[in-house]
Design brief:
With 344 residues, this protein is an alpha+beta fold. The protein is 31% helix and 26% strand. The chain folds into three domains: 105 residues, Sandwich (Immunoglobulin-like); 76 residues, no CATH class; 67 residues, Immunoglobulins (Immunoglobulin-like). It has five helices and 16 strands. A hairpin with a 2-residue loop joins strand 10 and strand 11. The longest helix has 61 residues.
Length: 344
């Protein structure tokens, strides 16, 4: 019995120790969990403080920062112009009195048509621009005053043309010159007029004339004959008398005797007057190197082959033959205007 009691006491002691150990482990575990919870809580609050500090720094730095440029997608650019419009067309433009510009487009169908008509020789022909002088005429393809050819590159689609004279009308053919010398017109341009390279040489038409009084006033202004002119009064009066007596005549009236003196006399006597006078203007054009005579006298042509003459036109019949010889004296032309004046 004593042995059994000892064994029970030992078992009980072992159980008590195991319970104590178990309780100790639970306490240690609770302490460990509490510490871990504290560790978990401390970084979170610290992290919050760190976030707030970072935000303050970020706000402070953005006060002086440049906002980032938002890159947008590139705008769609317009498409390039097409190289051609599949048309047979040539256009002639004026650049200045001495230069013109032309551009053109031809289609394969046009050359195919020519090949059927003339054969394969069209592919070996010279490509040229034929420039026509069509001044003062209605051009029909055969009546140009003159023309000249410019050989161009077969692949060219535009060209600058040096006009041989200013103040003339021009038309251009794009064509081919075959081996036998035949010219084939592919396209014909519009007609353009190049401007003059200086003042007009025609000053005698009625619309350009000015009254003598106005000319005298303008002449006086140009030579200091105004009211405040420092020139002596006697000299001013002398010039005025010469102006109104026909000694100094207006350029627009150069071929006419000034009627101003007679007009003044009539105005004093009758206070009513009428004077009529006429003049004749003869103008024309030919080749610039031609030799021209008017009424048997040689005249000088302008660089473009034009000329203008002014004649007094008294009562009666005026015969004015105009003769022109080519530079090589092969061609000869004569035109004779006949003008009759009768005053009633």
């Amino acid at each position: 019995m004593a042995i059994l009691r000892k064994i029970k006491n030992k078992i009980k002691a072992i159980k008590d120790r195991a319970t104590k150990v178990k309780r100790g482990r639970s306490a240690v575990k609770r302490v460990t969990e509490t510490k871990s919870r504290k560790k978990e809580l401390l970084p979170e609050s610290r992290f919050k403080n760190e976030i707030l500090g970072a935000r303050e720094v970020a706000v402070g730095t953005t006060k002086f920062s440049t906002p980032e440029i938002i890159k947008s997608s590139p705008r769609p650019m317009p498409q390039d112009l097409p190289g051609g419009y599949n048309e047979n067309k040539i256009v002639l433009l004026v650049r200045d009195p001495w230069w013109m510009y032309t551009y053109w487009e031809t289609t394969g169908e046009l050359f195919e048509k020519l090949r059927h008509e003339y054969g394969d020789v069209v592919y070996h022909a010279k490509k040229v621009l034929r420039v026509y002088d069509v001044s003062h005429i209605k051009f029909n393809g055969r009546n140009a005053h003159s023309y000249y050819d410019i050989e161009i590159h077969p692949a060219a689609t535009n060209w600058y043309i040096n006009a041989q004279a200013a103040g003339r009308s021009w038309c251009v053919d794009l064509g081919l010159i075959l081996a036998d010398g035949r010219f084939i017109t592919l396209l014909r341009s519009n007609v353009v007029l190049t401007p003059l390279d200086g003042p007009s040489l025609v000053t005698g038409e009625e619309e350009w004339m000015i009254p003598e009084e106005m000319f005298a006033r303008l002449y006086g202004m140009g030579f200091g004959l105004g009211q405040s002119s420092p020139i002596g009064k006697a000299w001013q009066e002398r010039v005025k008398r010469e102006l109104f007596s026909g000694i100094l005549a207006s350029p627009g009236m150069a071929s006419m005797a000034s009627p101003t003196g007679a007009k003044k006399q009539l105005a004093k006597e009758r206070k009513f007057w009428l004077i009529v006078n006429t003049e004749l203007i003869v103008y024309g054009a030919t080749e610039p190197d031609a030799k021209v005579k008017v009424q048997g006298k040689a005249i000088k042509l302008r660089p473009d082959g034009t000329f203008t003459l002014r004649f007094a036109l008294p009562d009666g019949k005026q015969v004015i033959p105009v003769e022109a010889n080519s530079a090589d004296d092969i061609d000869y032309r004569v035109i004779t205007p006949i003008v009759t004046r009768e005053t009633k």
